[in-house]
Q: What sequence folds into this?
């Protein structure tokens, strides 16, 4: 039900306590560790979540990614919003 | 290390360990999933052994350490164990009744690196909750614990097991969990194993009550979207196909009993003839890859018809081995929940008992879970 989540460009997404980004040596993958759950992350999701430190705003995160990957800002913003909306709905990211 | 046994597919690394640190518990829930024969305090693994188990777990690729019981707070070394889990990189999840925790101890656990608390509640009302748990003042203590969890900044999950005495408040428990500040709530209808099996006539709700409760909780998903995540475990008597029990036998997690026995699931000991290994003699990775009980139902070669030639077999792995054992007398059979099972009538018979339950008759007396006295035979 991600459509119920509204994320403003000023919000500062971050992983709440009990959520960790983890590089798992056994499986050679990036994981998002949650209570009772583990989410496998693709490369894009890892880059987004690494920047969700509670200081950068959504707009700044998109700027950073656009610069780092020389990609179109609009496309990146769509990806970032989609991922965050999904994780906010699961209570895995706070704004 | 023993020579690895042949299994038809490569065995994936385990992802979780459920550590039953002790079977001691101040509560006495009549549906407790611990075995009827509880492990006594004498013979519990010591701190150093548990630490070794967690080090080996992390090395074997395990991600989550679920610290459970009984009541894990009954162990004085709980903080030390939590700290060790953090040191070796395990995500630690405390599964607690709350009784035995204090504000200071909660702070200590948070400082030691605890990641998450799952707190059980017996009901959303004090009097009923305390009667179900067999412990006066338990409900009030849980309210304090929820507050302390929040104070120290840890995420909270509320877990409620649903049965006849509290089913009228299944939906209320979701609301209540949200009020307590939980991010997640588990509403789990009783599964009739172990103590719950012994108490099934006092615990089982009617079909009408069940359907109403299930619908109520499902409807709340919309209301609480983005506020609290609802995990709902519904009874499977009316399903056509079984669930993939444990995500498949020895595929994802293992259980360690207080005395160190390694089990593929908490009911595995109800299957006769399985050889279980103990962490005192074997490392976690040796157990995971080589213990006979773990390899007994791995892959699909052990299956018999109708599973053997069924296209769904890699999806549901033939359901629950322990349920197949209990209802058909052979753990290799299809879980009789499946409508293709020749034993499906046994499930239909249970469902029929369910149908006859008169919701207006009081639930009756429980056989409370206890370490001390021998429980009567079912
Ligand atoms: S279910 Fe009840 S009796 Fe069993 S361990 Fe949990 S709190 Fe204790
Ligand atoms: S026959 Fe076996 S594998 Fe097929 S659906 Fe039933 S339980 Fe699952």
A:
């Amino acid at each position: 039900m991600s459509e119920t989540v509204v994320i403003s460009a000023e919000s500062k997404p971050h992983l709440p306590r009990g959520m960790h980004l983890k590089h798992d040596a056994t499986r050679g993958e990036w994981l998002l560790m949650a209570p009772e759950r583990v989410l496998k992350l693709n490369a894009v999701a890892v880059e987004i979540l690494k920047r969700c430190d509670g200081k950068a705003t959504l707009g700044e995160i998109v700027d950073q990614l656009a610069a780092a990957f020389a990609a179109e800002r609009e496309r990146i913003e769509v990806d970032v919003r989609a991922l965050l909306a999904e994780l906010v709905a699961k209570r895995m990211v706070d704004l | 290390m023993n020579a690895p046994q042949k299994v038809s597919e490569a065995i994936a690394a385990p992802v979780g360990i459920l550590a039953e640190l002790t079977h001691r518990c101040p509560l006495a829930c009549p549906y407790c999933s611990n075995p009827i024969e509880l492990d006594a305090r004498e013979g519990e693994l010591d701190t150093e052994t548990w630490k070794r188990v967690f080090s080996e777990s992390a090395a074997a690729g395990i991600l989550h350490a679920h610290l459970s019981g009984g009541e894990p707070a009954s162990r004085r070394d709980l903080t030390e164990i939590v700290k060790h889990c953090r040191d070796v990189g395990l995500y630690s999840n405390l599964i607690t009744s709350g009784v035995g925790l204090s504000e200071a101890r909660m702070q200590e656990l948070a400082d030691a690196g605890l990641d998450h608390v799952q707190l059980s509640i017996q009901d959303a009302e004090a009097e009923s909750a305390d009667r179900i748990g067999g412990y006066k003042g338990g409900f009030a203590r849980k309210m304090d614990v929820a507050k302390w969890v929040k104070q120290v900044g840890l995420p909270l999950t509320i877990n409620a097991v649903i049965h006849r005495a509290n089913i009228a408040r299944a939906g209320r428990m979701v609301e209540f969990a949200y009020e307590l500040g939980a991010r997640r709530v588990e509403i789990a209808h009783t599964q009739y194993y172990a103590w719950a099996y012994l108490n099934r006539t006092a615990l089982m709700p009617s079909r009408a009550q069940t359907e109403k409760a299930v619908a109520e909780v499902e409807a709340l998903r919309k209301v609480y979207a983005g506020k609290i995540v609802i995990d709902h475990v519904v009874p499977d008597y009316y399903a056509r196909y079984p669930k993939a029990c444990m995500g498949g036998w020895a595929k994802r997690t293992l259980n360690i009993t207080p005395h160190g026995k390694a089990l593929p699931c908490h009911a595995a000991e109800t299957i006769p003839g399985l050889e279980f290994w103990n962490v005192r003699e074997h490392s976690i990775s040796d157990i995971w890859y080589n213990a006979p009980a773990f390899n007994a139902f791995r892959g699909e070669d052990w299956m018999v018809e109708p599973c053997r030639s069924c296209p769904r077999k890699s999806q549901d792995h033939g359901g629950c081995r322990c349920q197949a054992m209990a209802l058909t007398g052979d753990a290799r059979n299809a879980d009789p929940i499946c409508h293709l099972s020749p034993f499906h009538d046994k499930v239909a018979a249970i469902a029929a008992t369910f149908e006859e339950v008169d919701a207006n008759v009081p639930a009756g007396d429980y056989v409370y879970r206890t370490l001390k006295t021998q429980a009567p035979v079912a």
In short: The two ends of chain B are 41 Å apart (CA to CA). The first helix of chain B runs from residue 47 to 59. The CA atoms of residues 130 and 316 of chain B lie 38 Å apart. Residues B 25, 27-29, 32, 34, 69-71, 97, 120, 369 surround iron/sulfur cluster (ligand 1) (CB under 6 Å).
